[in-house]
Amino acid sequence: MIKSSTRKISIYLNVDENSIRDYFNPHDPARLERRQLGQEFQNYLNDSVACAGRHTVIDYKVFCSESGSMRFMVEPLMRTIRRHFQIKKMLKEVEFHKFKKKNYILLCISILVVMFCQGILPNLFGQDHRIHSMFSNAIDVFSWVVLWKPIERLIFYWNPFLKEILMLDKLQNAKLKIVESEEELVNHHLEHYDAA
User: Fold this and answer.
1) Of the residues 30, 83, 95, 96, which has the fewest C-beta atoms closer than 10 A?
2) Residue 13: enclosing H or E segment and its boundaries?
3) What are 155-167's pLDDT values in tens digits?
4) Could you tell me how far CA 2 lies from the centroid of its own chain?
């Protein structure tokens, strides 16, 4: 079986006079360091980590030209990226909490319904009636149907939440490396290519 995840992913960003505005939402009137990220840039970040797995290491490589005139923009850009993923992570954690709470409540209600069906309803008919065995079998089937969905959701549907929360945490806390020369940038590309 071929592993689909990569061990290390570097997200390359270029900070210069032409590219810096493309990273932010042009319709956001806030100061540049408080703006939202642009939609295309968010898509780029999400596509960059599409093949990441649980043990993938993610880092940011920011290329500043040798003149270094835009180096002061690296920190506000990274703060905005980290804040963006911090907010997304908090929203996903709230969604996961609601998912668990809703399914535990549904499971408790299902258990109460099953207890009522198994404990009280069979007593309506005596053991002598022929309908008792048919009714008992119907209650057993109904009990499994009622319990099935909450148990299935609690067992199988939680992993995508945890996977996304982990990925957002990695994107929020990824290390930053500033690359100042094109030669250094080419060496980073070659190291990444050789490691693959």
Assistant:
1) 30
2) strand 6-15
3) 889 889 999 999 9
4) 23
- Cα separation, 131 vs 160, in Å, equals 46
Distance CA 79, CA 176 (A): 11
The CA distance from 90 to 165, in Å, is 8
Type of residue numbered 105: I
Residue with tokens 């043990």: 55
pLDDT at 196 over 60: no
Degrees to nearest 5, angle at CA 171 with 194 and 95: 140
- Average per-residue pLDDT for the chain: 82
Rg (CA), the chain: 27
Q: Which helix (H) or strand (E) holds 139?
A: helix 131-156
Instruction: Report d(CA 27, CA 176) in Å as an integer.
Output: 27
